[in-house]
Amino acid sequence: MGPLKRPMSNADEDKKLASILTKPDFVPHTVPWTQAYADYRNVCGDPWQISPAVFQPPIRKAQLKLYISRQGGGPLKRIRYTPGLLCCPMCGSPSRGSLDHYLPREDFPEFAVLPANLLPACSLCNSGAKGRTFKGAISGERFLHPYFDTCAKDKIWRIRIDGHPAAPLFAAVPEPGLAKSLRLMIVFHLDNILGTAFETAIATIWSNLPEALADDIQNVGLNGKQALDRHYRDTVVTQGLNSWRAALLRGVNANDAALDHVAAAAAKVTLPDIKF
Ligand SMILES: [Zn+2]
Fold first, then answer.
1. Contact call for residues 122 and 88 (beta carbons, < 8 A)
2. How many domains, the chain?
3. Are 99 and 75 in contact (CB under 8 A)?
C-alpha cells in the first residue's frame, strides 16, 4: 500500500481518449465518454460519487476490447512496471508486475484504459480477493486509491498479534487514531484485499523474525526493542512504510509479550556463517 504519482496528466489522458474517439464507432459517444473521464478525476475515482456513464452493450464490449488489445503495449506496460515501487501499492505485498483496475473494467468499461484507473499491482491483487468488488454496503466503504488518497504516505495499518506468541493469530487492522472516515475505508480495504497468500506470508515472516534480529542481538549487543527498531527502519526504507513486513513489525512493537518472545528466540538462534 502506498501513494503513487499518476502516470499521465489530465491533458495527456484526454489526448489519448481523443485519439480513441476518432474511430467511427466511437464518434457518437465523444461527449459522455469525455465527461466520464472528467468526472472520474473530479471525484478521485470514488465509486460512491461516480455517475454511471450509460453506454449500450455493443459499445461497452468495444471499450473492453480496447483494453484487451492494449494491455501488452507501451503505456500500459509502463504502468505495470512503474519503477521505484517498494511494494504493491494496493496490498503491500513484496511482488509487483501486474495491472489492476481500481474500478473493475467489467463494471466500468469506459475506464478500461483510463490511466488514472490503472494501477501497478501484484498478481494477487489482480486475480485474488478484490475481484469485482469496488465498494461496500456502507457509504464511504471503498478501496484506497493510490493515485488520489495521499493518506498512504503515512502508516495506515498494522498487524495485530492476538493470543499467546507461541501460537499467535494475526489480524490486519487500521493504525490507531485515524479519523473515522479514513478508518472506515481502510477496514474495508484490508478486509477485501488481503487473501490467503497474505496470511501464509505473515506466518512465514513471523516465524523467521528471530533469525532477522539474531545478529543485532547476539553480535551487536542490542536489546530486543533496539533490534526491532533497527529492523523496522531497514524494512521501511527497503519495502515501504505500509508493506506487509512493516505492518507486522508495528504489531510486534505494540505487543510486549510478542516482542519478548521474538527477542528470547533470537538470542538462541544459531547464526549461520554468511560472508561475501
Ligand atoms: Zn497487491
1. yes
2. 2
3. no
Residue 2 in domain: no
Do 100 and 158 have their domain in common?
no
What is residue 229's three-state secondary structure? helix
CA of 114 to the centre of ligand 1 (A): 20
CA 36 – ligand 1 centroid, Å: 27
Report yes or no on whether pTM surpasses 0.90. Answer: yes
Give residue 130 CA to ligand 1 midpoint distance, Å.
Answer: 10
**Could you list the residue range(s) of the whole structural domain that residue 166 is in?**
154-268
Q: Is residue 276 part of a domain?
A: no
Q: Give the tens place of pLDDT for each residue, 179-225.
A: 999 999 999 999 999 988 899 999 999 999 999 999 999 999 999 99
CA of 192 to the centre of ligand 1 (A): 11
Please state the φ and ψ torsions of residue 228, each to the nearest 5 degrees. Answer: -65, -45
